[in-house]
């Protein structure tokens, strides 16, 4: 079984030729089928426009699929308390499986008090909050907000909060592994380490870094498989993880078991 806990249905440069959300969802299904991916979590964006569907639009559009879940993007600048109120209803109805904070894209630290209401909601309903960490896929991002070390504050101050550090904080993977090692409530997904496909040398470099992270942080109860599709290619990603030198039981944890439990996927 394979769970990809990090995909997008926004219209990026790469998917400009697919203007309709419904068609991008079909594209996602085709990709999932051809790569034997059983379930995927779609992350809604930090902004809503013609290229970036709202959480509500995604909820409506995925009704006909039983293999998709949603992590709802929440921002200080573009969302209100009313939005959070609606999110709470959707969480109760099982339509939202996680929240997503876009640190770096949005210029606030993850420990900014303005996000506390989101963390409180996640704790109340026992759903994880995902954070963008590391390089931003936009020149407008500000890196000091997306450094993985910032999540240490959130993890320590909210011991009951389940935190997912997206992209292993790349390129600050050493910082990321310490935050993961120290805080039992911090998980990490391996998504978005490459744009498109891995080439031979980059793949080896990233494989060594992930191996170092696992050696340092220990048995990967925290590690989640994710790609960042369509920014990263699913087939290239499966090749990448297939070559990771890890025990069978750890591989199962990475590919689906950890995500199944964390996101409560039945
Ligand atoms: Zn992403």
From TrEMBL:
Alphabetical UniProt keywords: Hydrolase, Lyase
What region holds the Amidohydrolase-related domain? 3-264
Does this UniProt record's set of keywords contain Magnesium? no
A molecular-function term among this protein's GO annotations? hydrolase activity
Asked if Transcription regulation is a keyword of the record, the answer is no
CDD domains under this entry?
A: metallo-dependent_hydrolases
The record's annotation in Pfam families points to: Amidohydro_2 (PF04909)
Taxonomic superkingdom: Archaea
Q: What is this protein called?
A: Amidohydrolase 2
Q: Which organism is it from?
A: Candidatus Nitrosopumilus sediminis
């Amino acid at each position: 079984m394979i769970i990809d806990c990090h995909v997008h249905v926004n219209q990026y440069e790469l998917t400009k030729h697919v203007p309709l959300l419904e068609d991008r969802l079909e594209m996602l299904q085709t990709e999932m089928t051809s790569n034997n991916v059983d379930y995927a979590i779609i992350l809604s964006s930090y902004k809503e426009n013609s290229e970036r569907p709202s959480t509500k639009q995604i909820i409506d559009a995925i009704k006909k699929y039983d293999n998709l879940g949603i992590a709802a993007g929440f921002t200080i600048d573009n969302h209100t308390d009313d939005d959070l109120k609606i999110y709470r209803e959707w969480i109760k109805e099982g339509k939202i499986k996680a929240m997503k904070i876009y640190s770096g894209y949005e210029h606030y630290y993850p420990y900014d008090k303005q996000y506390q209401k989101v963390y409180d909601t996640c704790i109340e309903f026992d759903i994880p909050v995902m954070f963008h960490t590391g390089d931003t896929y936009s020149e407008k991002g500000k890196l000091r907000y997306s450094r993985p070390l910032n999540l240490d504050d959130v993890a320590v101050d909210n011991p009951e909060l389940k935190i997912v550090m997206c992209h292993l904080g790349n390129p600050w993977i050493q910082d990321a592994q310490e935050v993961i090692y120290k805080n039992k409530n911090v998980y990490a997904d391996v998504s978005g380490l490459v744009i498109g496909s891995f080439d031979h040398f980059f793949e080896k470099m990233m494989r060594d870094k992930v191996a170092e992270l696992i050696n340092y942080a220990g048995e990967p109860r925290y590690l989640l498989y994710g790609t960042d599709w369509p920014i990263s290619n699913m087939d290239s990603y499966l090749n990448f993880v297939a070559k990771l030198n890890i025990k069978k039981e750890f591989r199962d944890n990475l590919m689906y078991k950890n995500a199944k439990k964390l996101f409560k996927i039945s």
